[in-house]
Amino acid sequence: MKLKPATLRTFTSLHSWMGLVAGFALFVAFYAGAITVFQPDVQRWANPHATPSTATLADAQQLLDEVLAQHPEARDHVGMTFPGYELAQPMAYWQDGDGTWLFASPGNTTGSTVEPGVAPLPELINELHYALGIPQVGTWLMGVVSLLYGVALVSGFVIHLPRLAKDLFALRPGRNLKRFWQDTHNVIGVLSLPFHVMFAITGAVLCLLLVAMLALNPLIYEGKLMAASAAAMNTAPTVAKAGVAAPLAPLAAWHARSIAVAREHGEAAFQPGYLKLAHAGDAHAVVEITGSSPQALGGGSVALDAVSGAVLATQLPGSRDANHATLAAAYALHFADYGGAAVRWLYFLLGLGGAFLFYSGNLLWIESRRKRRQAEQGRAQLGMARATVGICIGVCVAISAAFVAAQILPMLGWDVAAGQRWVCFASWALCALWAARRAPVKAARELLWLAAIVTALVPVVHGIATGWWLWRSAAAGHGALFAIDAGALAMAFAFASLARAVARRARRDQPNSVWASTAA
Known about the structure:
By secondary structure, this protein is of the alpha+beta class. It is 62% helix and 9% strand. The chain contains 17 helices and eight strands. A hairpin with a 5-residue loop joins strand 7 and strand 8. The model has no long low-confidence stretch (mean pLDDT 84).
């Protein structure tokens, strides 16, 4: 298949501009998303008081009983995590009369607006991933970015399709750095294309679902879609109160019953994670138990009569309806919620590889517009180089700084959630400002060294704050703590290596370039 020159130019232009428009947001999303894959592990790492779970279902039962007795509004709807699901202790949550979410844990059932025992670091990184740290509007923005991302993928595939077999593994290192970057960009892009297509589709679905529902509601569903959406997305049926008092079955019975039902549907590894209870104390009380199935595409849920334990409905892998199957698949595929640790590590590498694609795409755009016969380069190339350095390397510094702050702020007695956000976004802004005021090659070298230093501090402050030094975590079998600290050291080494490479390029590159020290 050979494209006409005019068609090839059109697709090349489309690929370049879609990549540039969405590239910065996608770099942040992929770099933060690579870490978000290990969100439960980051939660354990960031919580200085995290210990192996010693709580039992009896502790969870006591917590539920106390919350229902002390907070009448929780009897309408209350949720609770089981011990060991992300947190060592169970946690109950409900809304008061004003719609404010309240949380309770064993020994603290008065109701607090702060989630007990929950470190804010994983949510901050996840927020960067799906919303760039911008509340609500950022989610919609990332949905649009996902659509642009899809256009860039299709156009890039069309460009490289004619010479795919010839150039797929053509890595040509040497003095021609543009050609080497182009080869690397193409190889990573083509080999990971199926995953990137999946990320683009699931990202658009997850970010724009609410927008699509609001748009379609008056056009197709006559204004009834929002009212019906709860029933379409929940497993438990919507049941009116009977007005007759009835005692709830024991929580342990719900737990055991959900496992038994899952096994009947072929999910032998189903593990309950959390429950949602409606109409507690009424004869029509309903409980929905959601859990994980490590080897299946997404978890599942079982709805029970909370009084008798009878099965009301199920949404388990292999027996879901279209709504639940679509959403479960989108979430599981996007966040690696299947296949165990091997798949999570694969997604981590794909996330870093995706971040590299957008960074290298910007470098190729700059290089393709370089003026080879004059020392002074164009404003657009200089501005793109500074933005690429400040935003992309800056977010790497910011996330590492947030990890460091997660351990230091509790020791100082400061507000961890607010302080962490200030540290993250302030350091990001300062890096972008620094890059805007410096020559691109100098800013790149300096910020990469800064990223290396701050990232290397991650295991150091963790050891100081908690006593869980790298070697102690390994000896005690705490794989999550060891992996994060060891991964931080590996990333620090990678940043330092890139800083040295940038310095070498500044010395050896052609003088007429935004990356050459002579041009700076």
